[in-house]
Structure formats: structure tokens, C-alpha cells
Design goal:
Helix content: 10-25%
Distance between the termini: 81 Å
Largest sheet: 12 strands, antiparallel
Radius of gyration: 29 Å
Shape: elongated
Strand content: 25-35%
Length: 596
């Protein structure tokens, strides 16, 4: 390769940034990056001479051109090699490092080695430093958001917003369950151009540079700003949630749950999905108090019997959560060991704290929950039905043919459901059910039950989702987790609130099932008769659709008495968000708690 001078380099400005750990002494970042490139390359790689120069009194630049030989991705059976020429450049300004790679994918690859391996002395630039120095909430032009609500059917996992002062378009209620993953905003001291930042990848990009001098000046400006600033800001966009880098301030866990296995994609790990399914029916936990407020102490139960207890300490490294098991007491070791496996997979755990934090997706977030109030609970008397039993039979093998004959919540719906009301405040149960009740329980269900009745000139269709309480103790607290799962189930098939879609899909499911339970006015009838009755309905204008959540974990006295707690605030946000999504589809939303 010909002799390369820095003046020959005119790249697209996209740099990886780090800061030297001064406690570990000096390190030659450039040579260590070169060694990592050599060791990690899957192709034949040849380096040319490295060069270094001082820039003024505080800056230094080094660059190394190299060549790789690799087979064309589109060619098979021929020994032909492509030749690619690349360069990587490192800048050092008072210990702040900027690294440019012309080869695609190398920024993320090298970033993974920060603070470990051969780059143990190079740390990512703290996110709060990047936020405070480069992000002006009023000047944001593009915004990339990632959801912290977990897998959800009424909120996108991620979204991208664009426009002038785009932060002004955020919804204070809906968008508070998102975090900023990347942003494009006004460039440093230059309102005519913009700069892109991904704080989690320690990356800044700006665009093509016409020559080396432009590239050098812009990189030095970025690093110099960081080296001379003491500003730090964790939440650059006030509405959004933001991750915390350590457990400082994390206190008083009040709700602990696992994500619903039905929402866990198999491509993310079949073993984890199977573990979630195994734990879903047989295991439950209760939070206990601890001396250290950030610790999570759990009593673990298998089929209602206590099998042990465990105390874990959340630990945060580079914003990712791991768990350290501090102590455990086994009553039945095999079962406790089975449940303990969840702490290997932080991404399947959800935990809410009275300090206003939420542990979701393997990170801990602080959210300024808005003071919104949900005031539309229906409070029902569940009589002597068992709030912890969802279906007749055993949890792993329910007996749907026995619906109505036991004291499960499914039996309560069959024996007591009344759809003849227009105002939720006038809801009441009945001992003489009217209308059609169809049980659609099973994989791919539209709801646990679908109820059809004629009332005030409308065909009232209720999609009823039933979830057992996490506890039937009189001392049970508000649980965001208990509602989180069932609300997702209630929203996921909203498009079936359109009668034609609902009927078509139910008929397909009926034809592929061995049997479906159905009743009219409380008496058993053929399920096909109900489907035929749906087919007779003419036009959606004659229908009123309801999405009904039965979740008796929530007690009226506890909910109405928790006027200013973070737990109630978090639950209200979840309920109002679900209600907004459901009403947008043209359906009503109702949630039923226990009147006690």
C-alpha cells in the first residue's frame, strides 16, 4: 500500500468514545485496539505502519491503515478474494478517547471490550455526561425510543419520531414507559447542522467530512467538551424513563413477577420460555422485608406449599442487571433450585420499587410517573369463590367441563355474570344468568369467555379475561405485576372486536378443537349454536363491545386508601394506558376488583 498520510483521510464522522481509567495508570489504547482487530478478524488481515502526532498541547492522534482479504459473500466454489482497504484512527484529549473505524461493525465489536479484557483501562463515557453535554430537549430533530414495558400488545417495542423540537410531541402518559435509545440533535455550537448520539453504545455520529482538517477539528471539539465539562444529567428528556447506572436510591420492592411465557419469543431462548411455562402454574412468591432496602427477599411456594426462601442483591454493571444470591433457606431443595434459575436471566424478571424504580428487560429504570387517576374500577362481591383459583381442576390440567361446579373464578363467571348494564356503576352479579356465554380458553384464545346479550337495543359482546389473584390474604398489597400480564392478554386481540373477524376466527378455532363449552341463560348448549347466533348480527352499529378484566387481587379498601403511593401511581398509569388503547378500537374497558 502506498504511504498514507492523515491528510488523505476524509471519513464519515462516526466515532466510538471512551475515557481512560486514571486509577490503572496509562494505557496505549491504539495498540490494544489494533491487537483486538487482529485477533477478532475472520479474514486475512495485514497492518501497515502506524503513525502518531501531537495536536496542540493536550491532544494526540494515531492512525493505522490495514488491508483485509475475504471471499465475496455472493460467490461459491471459486477461490477469488476481495481486497478491502481500511483505517482506524484514535484521538486522545486529556484521557477522553475517540476511535474511528472505516470497517463496518467494528465500533460495536470493540465497545464490547470496554472495561474488560485488553481494554480494561478504557471505560465508556458515562451516559449522564453525554446527555448533559450534547442533548438539548428543545433542539431534538430525531428520537429513537425503546419500550421498558416489556412485551406488550398495546405499545410498540420501539419507535422513531422526527420533526422540529420533536420532544414536544411526546405524550406525558403513553410515552413515559419508553427510554431514549438514540437521538439526533443540534450539533455543538452549530445550529445549522445536527449530531447523532447513542449513549448506550458510546457512539456519536455527524456526517461526511470534506477533508481531514474538518474531521479532526470536529472530533477534537467533541472530546474537548467532555474533558472540560462537569455537567451530568441522567434524564435529558423529562417525560421519558431513564436507566440508572447503580443501585443508589433503589429501595423497598413491593411487587415481583415474571414475564408471561406467551409473550416471550422462542427465538430469544426456548430454554427460558420453557422455564417460564413450568413456573407459571405451580410456583408463586411473596416479597418479604429486608435490612438492606435494595435487596429482594422472596418466600417461594410450590402448589401453595412453601419450599424455601431466598435473598438476592441486584447489581448493575454498564446498566445491565445481574443478581447475587446472598442467602437461601431450602425446605424442599429441588423445587427451590428450580425457581432459582430465573436469576440467571434478568430479562425475564419484573420488579417494582416504592422508590419509583422498575426493573424491566434486565435494566433498572427511574420513571417520573404522572399523577393520572383511574377511577373506573368495578367492585364485585366474589362471595365464597376462591380468588387464587382461576380454573376448575388442577392448574397444569384444568377441567373445563367442570366450569360452574367448583369455586374457581371461571365458575364465578359462569354462575354470576350479568351483562345487562350500560353504566359500570350499576354492574351487579346475578344468580340467573342471561344471554350466551362461550368459553374460548386455550392457546390463541380471543378471551377466556365471550358473552353475548341483548340490552337496550344493542348486542352487547363482552370479551372477558380472567386472572386469579396472586394472594387471597386480607393484607395483600397493590400489584402492578398481577395486572400487567392480564392487560396484555386483554388488549392483544382488539381487532377481533370487529364482529366479522371475531366470528370467523372463533369458527376456525371451534373446528380445530375437540370441544368448546357454551351456555345460554345458564344452561349448556352446543357451541356451534352460539357461533350461528353471532352470524345473525347485522352490522357493527348494533353492537357494543367490552373488554373486561377480572382481577380480584385488587381490594377496594387498599386501592382507595393508597392515595399517594408509587404503587398506586404505577398501576393507574398502566390502567389508563390500557383503557386508552382499548377505547381507541371502539370498545369499552372495564376492570373488576374485589369489594372488600
Amino acid at each position: 500500500m502506498y504511504e498514507l498520510e492523515k491528510e488523505n483521510i476524509a471519513p464519515y464522522l462516526s466515532i466510538l468514545m471512551g475515557v481512560k481509567d486514571t486509577n490503572n495508570g496509562p494505557c496505549d489504547v491504539h495498540e490494544r485496539v489494533k491487537k483486538l482487530l487482529e485477533d477478532s478478524s475472520e479474514n486475512e488481515i495485514s497492518f501497515y505502519e502506524s503513525k502518531s502526532e501531537r495536536i496542540g498541547e493536550v491532544a494526540e492522534v494515531s492512525f493505522t491503515p490495514y488491508r483485509i482479504m475475504k471471499a465475496p459473500s455472493w460467490l461459491s466454489g471459486y477461490e477469488v478474494m476481495d481486497v478491502e482497504h481500511h483505517v482506524f484512527v484514535t484521538f486522545n484529549v486529556n484521557g477522553y478517547i475517540g476511535i474511528y473505524f472505516s470497517e463496518k461493525g467494528k465500533k460495536d465489536e470493540i465497545r464490547e471490550n470496554f472495561a474488560k479484557n485488553s481494554l480494561k483501562d478504557l471505560c465508556p463515557v458515562p451516559i449522564d455526561e453525554l446527555n448533559s453535554n450534547f442533548i438539548n430537549e428543545d433542539k431534538i430533530k430525531m428520537l429513537w425510543l425503546s419500550g421498558i414495558h416489556g412485551k406488550s400488545n398495546f405499545k410498540a417495542d420501539s419507535k422513531v419520531l422526527g420533526g422540529e423540537s420533536v420532544a414536544d410531541t411526546l405524550d406525558p402518559l403513553i410515552d413515559q414507559s419508553y427510554m431514549m435509545s438514540a437521538v439526533r440533535t443540534e450539533a455543538v455550537n452549530n445550529s445549522k447542522s445536527s449530531i447523532g448520539i447513542n449513549p448506550f453504545k458510546s457512539s456519536i455520529w455527524r456526517g461526511p467530512c470534506k477533508d481531514w482538517k474538518t474531521f479532526e477539528n470536529r472530533v477534537i471539539q467533541i472530546l474537548d467538551l467532555l474533558a472540560n465539562s462537569i455537567k451530568k444529567k441522567a434524564d435529558p428528556i423529562s417525560i421519558l424513563s431513564y436507566p440508572i447506572p447503580n443501585c443508589s436510591g433503589l429501595a423497598d420492592p413491593y411487587d415481583f413477577s415474571l414475564i408471561d411465557y406467551e409473550f416471550y419469543p422462542e427465538e430469544d431462548g426456548q430454554h427460558r420460555k420453557e422455564l417460564l411455562k413450568k413456573l407459571y402454574y405451580d410456583f408463586s412468591v411473596e416479597l418479604q422485608g429486608t435490612f438492606i432496602k435494595s435487596d429482594i427477599a422472596l418466600d417461594v411456594f410450590y402448589q401453595g406449599g412453601k419450599v424455601g426462601s431466598i435473598v438476592v442483591e441486584p447489581q448493575i454493571n454498564d446498566y445491565q442487571v445481574t443478581f447475587k444470591i446472598k442467602s437461601e433457606i431450602a425446605i424442599k431443595k429441588t423445587y427451590l433450585d428450580t425457581y432459582k434459575k430465573i436469576f440467571k436471566y434478568p430479562e425475564i424478571i419484573k420488579c417494582w420499587f416504592d422508590s419509583g424504580h422498575a426493573l424491566v428487560n434486565g435494566m433498572v429504570f427511574k420513571t417520573g410517573y404522572q399523577d393520572v387517576k383511574f377511577d373506573r374500577f368495578i367492585w364485585a362481591d366474589f362471595e365464597n369463590y376462591d380468588l387464587k383459583i382461576e380454573k376448575p381442576g388442577v392448574p397444569t390440567k384444568p377441567d373445563l367441563h367442570d366450569i360452574g361446579n367448583q369455586k374457581s373464578l371461571f365458575c364465578w363467571v359462569k354462575n354470576r355474570w350479568n351483562g345487562d348494564w350500560s353504566d359500570y356503576k350499576k354492574f351487579n352479579t346475578t344468580e340467573k344468568p342471561k344471554g350466551w356465554l362461550y368459553c374460548d380458553d386455550g392457546a390463541g384464545e380471543k378471551a377466556d369467555f365471550i358473552h353475548l346479550t341483548e340490552f337496550e337495543g344493542f348486542n352487547v359482546i363482552s370479551l372477558i379475561h380472567v386472572k386469579a389473584a396472586k394472594s387471597n390474604s386480607d393484607k395483600r398489597r397493590i400489584s402492578v405485576g398481577a395486572h400487567d400480564i392480564v392487560l396484555n392478554q386483554g388488549v392483544k386481540n382488539l381487532r377481533y372486536c370487529m364482529r366479522k373477524n371475531l366470528t370467523t376466527d372463533l369458527r376456525e378455532r371451534f373446528e380445530n378443537s375437540t370441544s368448546k363449552q357454551c351456555w345460554k341463560d345458564g344452561k349448556p348448549v352446543k357451541a356451534e349454536d352460539f357461533l350461528n347466533e353471532l352470524d345473525k348480527i347485522s352490522g357493527s352499529s348494533t353492537c357494543r363491545f367490552r373488554v373486561v378484566i377480572v382481577q380480584p387481587h385488587t381490594k377496594k379498601t387498599v386501592y382507595t386508601g393508597a392515595t399517594s403511593s408509587n404503587s398506586k401511581r404505577q398501576l393507574d398509569v398502566l390502567l389508563v394506558s390500557a383503557e386508552s388503547a382499548i377505547r381507541a378500537s371502539g370498545a369499552e374497558f372495564h376492570i373488576i376488583g374485589v369489594d372488600s
